Amino acid sequence: MLLKLTSVGLVLAGMLATATALRADDAAIQKDLKVLEGGWTVKSEGGGDISYTFKGDKLEIKAPSRSYKMTVKIDPVAKPEKSIDFQIDDGPDDAKGKTSKGIYKFEDDNNTFVFCFRGEGDRPDKYEQVGFEQILSKLKRKKS
Question: How far apart are CA 70 and CA 89, in angstroms?
Fold first, then answer.
């Protein structure tokens, strides 16, 4: 009987620890999504502006020649770098339905959002541009 009660106690303790960790992760996710909320911009290679607008876990990108709507999944407690996945919900036919894996960080008192992603394959482990296979972007928060 004592063994049975001890086992039940251990299971309950494990469940409580897991639930607490999940709430902490969820709080970190909500915190970073709040930092992302709103408008960001970067210059395109052609000279025009590319506009990024985050609302919750949704992202809309407007570039001079293309636009995208995405669902963003972040993991701010991932190691060694925070992770971000961009699931393309709407956009050009060659991109729709794909998910790009990346890493991200905030700089300059959260006024700069840096992310690096690959269109296919494994998640990058460094913030660096590698041809067209691994893209590095540095967005600036739009002024209100």
Answer: 5
What's the whole-model pTM score?
0.79
| Region of residue 61 (phi > 0: left; psi between -120 and 50: alpha; otherwise: beta) | beta
- Tell me what the pLDDT averaged over the chain comes to: 84
Count helices and strands in the chain by DSSP H and E runs: 1, 8
Residue where the block lists tokens 């905030």: 106
Give domain 3-141's CATH architecture.
Answer: Beta Barrel (2.40)
Compute the distance between CA of residue 1 and CA of residue 20 in angstroms, rounded to an integer.
Answer: 29
Distances (CA, A) of 74 to 26, 30, 35, 86, 123: 10, 9, 12, 9, 13
